[in-house]
């Protein structure tokens, strides 16, 4: 197996078999290539404290060869890439409005964040809830999992329902450091319309599916 694959989480090292209709990673003895043309380099072509951009040499089911890029979040080394939280209080779902660098605009979303090393997913969900809406959850429970973009991102995030203490809506505050300017508790009966008019985030939309499927809003 190539050296760079050894650095990835175990499920992401699977080579596959083009003869079985899969996209096969072509392992070589050279490990990560050192080609001078950046378009030809394979292996980990970019890395920082948060993620790795991996370019694999691959063979497709029709046996032609090429390259495929995938983004691996380093939190996955702890098996989970992050958490999405569905805060529930007094018949409402809590959303936050924050500025996203990638889209360069304000977005309404559910609270979420990277998986912090040393924390369990449950602990991470408690931490993110406290940080993003300023209220500690009474309890959190896993209701589903999401892989947000299977064509590029390898990460899997856990969706948690976070039960907040009754009567805490007036105490909720967004974290200024995280560019959160609003926290809004949306009544169950208004959630669908609110989502249709305001929410574009794929994490949040998927998490709301799991919320419906779990019966929390029944």
TrEMBL record:
Give the InterPro entries listed for this entry.
NUDIX_hydrolase-like_dom_sf (IPR015797), NUDIX_hydrolase_dom (IPR000086)
SUPFAM superfamilies from the UniProt entry: Nudix
Short name of any one Pfam family annotated for the protein: NUDIX
Q: Keywords on this record?
A: Hydrolase
Keyword Cell wall biogenesis/degradation tagged: no
* UniProt GO molecular function: hydrolase activity
Q: Which domain of life is it from?
A: Bacteria
Does the entry feature the keyword S-adenosyl-L-methionine, yes or no?
no
Residues annotated as domain Nudix hydrolase: 78-209
Record protein name field: Adenosine nucleotide hydrolase NudE
Q: Which organism is it from?
A: Stieleria varia
The beginning of the lineage is: Bacteria, Pseudomonadati, Planctomycetota, Planctomycetia, Pirellulales
């Amino acid at each position: 197996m190539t050296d760079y694959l050894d650095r990835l989480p175990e499920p992401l090292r699977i080579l596959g078999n083009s003869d079985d209709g899969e996209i096969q990673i072509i392992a070589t003895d050279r490990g990560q290539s050192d080609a001078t043309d950046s378009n030809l380099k394979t292996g980990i072509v970019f890395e920082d404290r948060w993620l790795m951009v991996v370019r694999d040499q691959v063979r497709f089911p029709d046996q032609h060869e090429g390259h495929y890029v995938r983004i691996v979040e380093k939190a996955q080394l702890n098996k989970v890439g992050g958490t999405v939280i569905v805060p529930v209080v007094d018949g409402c779902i809590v959303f936050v409005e924050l500025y996203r660098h990638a889209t360069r605009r304000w977005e309404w979303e559910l609270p979420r964040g990277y998986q912090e090393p040393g924390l369990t997913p449950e602990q991470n969900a408690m931490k993110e809830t406290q940080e993003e809406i300023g209220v500690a959850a009474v309890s959190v429970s896993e209701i589903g999992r999401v892989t947000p973009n299977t064509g590029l991102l390898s990460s899997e995030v856990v969706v948690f329902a976070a039960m907040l203490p009754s009567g805490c809506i007036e105490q909720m505050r967004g974290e200024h450091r995280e560019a959160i300017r609003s926290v809004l508790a949306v009544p169950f009966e208004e959630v669908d319309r609110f989502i249709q008019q305001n929410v574009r985030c794929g994490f949040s939309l998927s998490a709301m599916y799991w919320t419906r499927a779990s019966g929390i809003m029944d």
